[in-house]
């Protein structure tokens, strides 16, 4: 499980893959001054145990006392004859970094490599109790022959004695054994004292059938059995048996009941000999390893007491939200925020009311971090609703309205700013940096501790008197009694009362570490993380910290370096309302500068760069490139402000000039004078394009356009199409004064171009009043647009065939028809006539409703309209087309106008009458876009609108009355089996009788009246209830008139299959299964086959048609039906074995493929290689890759599939080719049909897009859920 954990001189390990691109250096330590441990994937159990060992002073100091002479050097581990103890060395290096390295978290990669973890063990979660025993055993083995070889035994080993006392002679038999940890059962135990009492105080009486064989008495006697603790170690480890096994459900589960444990534990009642020194049996809790999750996985973290006051503790109830700062932007780095509590608090603190909906909170979280809650936190904290409910002390969550708000509205305002920068000298929680040998927190006996306490007492007045009082009221635990939560890379202070929350639940205590209360610590060790560390190690860690600081400084310089583009005024000129380059292209000067510098530093750098050319007095303006050219915006004036506060970033364009003129021309600056690029047309094809300042007045604009166009200002008319009040209007941009009274077009009452809301690229039309006739009314922009349509005469009463009509979008179709009738000279047209479109690809479209306008009907320029006899549909009617029988046959297509609210039965009557048919033994079926049959309209009383029948739909009128509600109408055919074929016909026995009888029926030698082809015969139609069983269906089939001459011995000898596309498919299984359960659809075709035995195909069996291929002729042999039993496996190998057994061949010499007739393709059946899964997957066992399931994607093997078999030796060059000549022809036909359909789709799309006006939208149908009516209680 743990690899070669006990092998010291393991082989060298490959380097970890380095991520591409520059990476930021490790972050400095957090405010609490403890370093966390990186989780390599699933090493939380290891991290919790390592932090416990680190904060066990006796273990840590004993480890550091081992010198290089005792352990060896890592560089010599590969030398022959060297004895290098890798695990202790790597533990020393890890502890050294955790204590003194100025980083937020430390990696355990080197340590796990020393464990021999080479098979991604860091991604597999293991048990912390098991690791504790294995790691201690590995350390003991590593330290043999060194001064520390007794380290584990002296600190952690105790002794248990098992005693049996004979009640007859008093003889005591005992067996002594060492223990590393005390394992206690928590089921049915209230707490640790209760469990210890049951184990080491209670005695078991051995009597009756369980008597003891006494060596002294030489007979079976009554006895007392008990276990006693003979000696206790300084560090007492208690393992809680949280995981149990349910022998009823045969599954593991976790004991989540309440199990208490004290902070101070008196072990004197449980030891064998009562000691006079009670201090030896008094223990204090200093570490709790916690497991959160289930018996099949979860997360470990640890609550550990800071015995030596190495950290800085602050009240977790009043501590500010600690979100790291991104050095690149100076803003909160939500991506690296590991605490969901802090993340949610910061997000809520940024909204006005400190509250929002949970959905919006999740969206904001994804926006800030790029990862959703479910991917980042759900595994460890559960769903977000459960998380918010659990943290009711911090959030107010209302599940009814799905709303969340901060419990303490001032939490982020009061403390966030003070806590974000731990190095802020004005921050009351700031702790002075540590030196080499000095501590940095917590105890008043140390100078630094006094400073920390003084800081705690002298809270800065800027925090507020209320915060001070709250802090003093809560108080700070005394030295050595401060607890921290070590959760992988994150370390945070906690209150001791939080330990009580781990008594029960899915997140509960798993291991307890007690320390003997009499163990005292030297004064020099208090608050001093460098205590007992050798000088050589101190030098190495100081060098590492120095390198880290250099990396951070270099990184901050790189991320804060910006490259601005300087543009000097001598390279530009001001023309057409914007700046333009004299060189024809930009040649900016790039200047690199730290964005943490001030604007004055930038001015100095530019002055040094430009020299005398820039001049003594120059200013900087932001510059942007616009379609009209370059424009200047705000001036950078405050020279004491930082560049990052001025939003100077990479690529920022700055213009260097005197602030007034460029090449002697005055330049306007600012957003209000931003130029808009306009195209001005004043003839055909005369036009010009340039930029105009937005603050230019309309009079100035008219004068400027007049100078370009040559039109006098008195007669100049400017027009454009703008969006106003959700509609397009032709707007006059001012008119000659003598024409103002005649103005009828809408005119904008604004004084500048900005009020027109003009955009870059807008078209302005300049005309003279002598050529323009003013409109008499205020029309929308496109109301006056006229175009021509072509009308074709199909009334056949006039010699004129077609003509052109000029129309506009508001013209009513009835007017168009009357105008066409007038110009054609038509008077008496049957039913008044109607208009419809004749599309070049889609053919004749449905006739138009005459109430519609040209625009509403979607008629565009050059549309071909057909004028024909007939009644036009009304607004509540629609036009449908239909055919009888096969829609792809030669049956004529009919058209009918019906009401939208008419029932399906009424529509059928109209269609029957239209087609000249009789009777009501008909039903309707939908068709798709390609006129292929679709589903049946079963509810005859439903309206066409509720059935989603729309204008222009094509329906299929089929003969046959629909069955009653709850019944199925099925068409039954008789099909032969493979035994019925002549080549396998028997001459005697029952099979021969059945075969000969069926052969006579199919070949017409019988007197049967069955009509059909030689391969299938129609038996008739049956109506049967959906709740009828398969046995009922067989009996009803035998009652059909066509079944009278069938040689059927019993109903169970009939095999019933579903026909799909004329092919035998699904076998109906289970005589007592209902047709509803078997999902038999109405109006489906069923095939029956007569068998010489009962049909007992089970759900695990698949009926397949196997055909052997002749590679030379590309022809397949006759069908051989096989039954593939999938209960033994659904892989390709299992199927290949079944096929090989059928053909009496070896599996090694054949390959198989499935035929897809609808695609004219063959898919080779083989097990695809599976990639090994990394880590555990829910529901799957480790290391067991899933095989290909032939009944799932992409194979979908089912009843009736054709399996082709090829001998590999016959075609070794192309073993994957199973195609036939018919497949080639079918593929070509499909290609042609696909091209036709593609062309039709493009025409439909074009038809929809070419419309200048919006099409009539289909009427929306409300969603309904029909509930069954309940009978009233009588």
UniProtKB/TrEMBL annotation:
Gene Ontology molecular function: cysteine-type deubiquitinase activity
Pfam families, alphabetized: UBL_USP40, UCH
Compositionally biased residues, Basic and acidic residues: 1224-1249
Species in which this protein is naturally found: Pomacea canaliculata
Annotated GO biological process: protein deubiquitination
Keyword vocabulary terms for this entry: Coiled coil
Chain intervals with Low complexity compositional bias: 1-15
One CC-aspect GO term: nucleus
Recorded coiled-coil stretches: 538-565
All residue ranges annotated as the USP domain in the record: 35-517
Location of the region described as Disordered in the Swiss-Prot/TrEMBL record: 1-30, 1215-1274
Identification of the protein by name: USP domain-containing protein
